[in-house]
Amino acid sequence: MAWWSDLVDEQPEFAARVRARFTVRKHGTMATLRRDGSPRISGTEFDFDPEHLRLGSMAGALKALDLRRDPRVALHCPTEDAPEDDPRVWGGDAKIAGIAHEEPAGEDGSHRFRIELTEVVLTRVGDPADHLLIESWHPGRGLRRRERR
Q1: Which H/E stretch holds residue 69?
Q2: How far is CA 39 from CA 24, 35, 54, 62, in A?
Q3: Which residue, 61, 73, 104, 129, is most buried by CB atoms nearer than 10 A?
Q4: In CATH, what class is 4-148?
């Protein structure tokens, strides 16, 4: 199992850049799997603490019921456009795939999940701005960097 703290310990600079992308705005996107296996896209808020990445939902929300049935989840950072005059200063696009572990419900019955990391990816524009830089981290495999032209 790999938690947020494992990534921070192993790759602190990369983890800081990923977290910055997820906290650029309040609401990001998550994908869960419906009962029939089709995807469900939902808005959500992310909570990073020193140990874990967490997310929650209102009591009885379909996205929470999806995670109870099949805990696989994909998370996407809030979207921010790259500046047209210099896309190299854009912070990038971050994604996290993982397994949701339910935690005790809030007093209001809300759902809370702790995310076990299975993949973390950060994509940004390279310098010169003629290619993308793709960094990906997987537990046990570490950080890899590649370029796409």
Answers
A1: helix 62-69
A2: 25, 9, 20, 12
A3: 73
A4: mainly beta
